[in-house]
Write a structure and sequence with these properties.
Layout lengths: L1 H28 L4 H6 L6 H10 L6 H13 L13 H6 L2 H28 L4 H15 L2 H15 L16 H35 L2 H8 L4 H24 L3 H11 L5 H11 L2 H29 L7
């Protein structure tokens, strides 16, 4: 296992390097940038603007800026935000706990719902419950996240008034109860797509496991259906499901951009949208790099869990 982890981590180095180089190149090619940002201040003279460019190293050739940025990146220095004038790492770190809270809650909802719906649907394929789950799944896969979030806001916040429409806390402040009320709608919004897709994977893998010889043997020996499902079928059905979850987890960052923007949730997704609006490129590149790290970590965790659920797999 140790050798496997070392190989995977070493293999991730060129991947992250490629993401860093491409991120820098795309930001250089994008319109706007720091020149347009600083030029908005009409009180600055051209000499002052040139001084800012020299201090930030923006007057140097592109390749020199790239090597400087890569060198700083290797030491954990992501640069300075163009708008907040703070280290990018500090700007991003302020939002990471909020995004992890939203992603973790959304994942928990997705896992519980997907496992429950998938297993129940697989026990009676093409029955009434299976057809209902299939319809809901197709609806969830086809539905835009931002539209679903707006519909939830209109129904539960505007019409019914049960839950707040945006933010993380009320204006007057609040405790854990207030946080959970604000968390409910964005967490369910970010989870709906995963519930739809994951429940189909669980259903398919469970149906396949139910058709295996060991299941018929267990039933012939009189093993209780509940023990057979939990002790044999579910364990084998989770093997492909774990891989799908590990690959999809980093995609929560994509959903977080839309969800956090719709619900004004102060996380990385909202920060990415705000930075994109004002062309704060160091922040954008920092978030892209962190997203790449999440993808590598998600796939690595999926591979490890794959071996946990299936002892036949060896990482020697």
């Amino acid at each position: 296992m140790t050798r496997f982890l070392i190989r995977r981590l070493l293999g991730a180095v060129p991947l992250l390097l490629g993401v860093a180089i491409l991120s820098f190149i795309f930001m250089q090619l994008a319109p706007g940038g720091p020149d347009a940002l600083f030029a908005r201040n009409a009180r600055m003279s051209q000499e002052q603007l040139d001084a800012i460019r020299r201090n930030m190293g923006l007057d140097r050739p592109t390749h020199e800026q790239l090597f400087t940025w890569l060198g700083n990146l290797a030491t954990g220095d992501l640069g300075i935000s163009y708008t907040q004038y703070r280290p990018v790492s500090a700007v991003i770190w302020d939002t990471v706990p909020n995004t992890l809270l939203l992603m973790g809650t959304g994942m928990l909802i997705s896992l519980v719902a997907a496992l429950t719906f998938g297993i129940l649907a697989a026990q009676k394929p093409y029955g009434f419950f299976d057809n209902v789950v299939s319809f809901v799944s197709y609806f969830g896969l086809a539905m835009p996240v931002f539209w679903f979030g707006l519909m939830l806001q209109i129904l539960f916040a505007v019409r019914l008034g049960w839950l707040p429409s945006a933010g993380m806390y009320s204006a007057t402040g609040g405790g854990i109860g207030d946080l959970l009320r604000h968390l409910a709608l964005p967490a369910f919004t970010i989870a709906i797509g995963s519930i739809a897709g994951w429940s189909r994977y669980v259903r398919s893998s469970t149906i396949e496991s139910l058709g295996q010889d060991y299941v018929r043997t267990a039933r012939a020996k009189g093993l209780a259906e509940r023990k057979m499902m939990l002790g044999h079928v579910l364990r084998n059905a989770l093997i492909p499901f774990v891989t799908v979850v590990g690959i999809d987890v980093p995609l929560y960052l994509t959903g977080a951009v839309l969800t956090e923007t719709v619900f004004s949730w102060p996380g990385m997704g909202r920060l990415f949208y705000d930075a994109l609006t004002v062309r704060d490129y160091p922040v954008l590149m920092g978030i892209l790099m962190l997203g790449a790290v999440f993808i590598v970590a998600g796939n690595l965790i999926a591979d490890i869990l794959y071996g946990v659920f299936d002892p036949r797999i060896s990482y020697g």
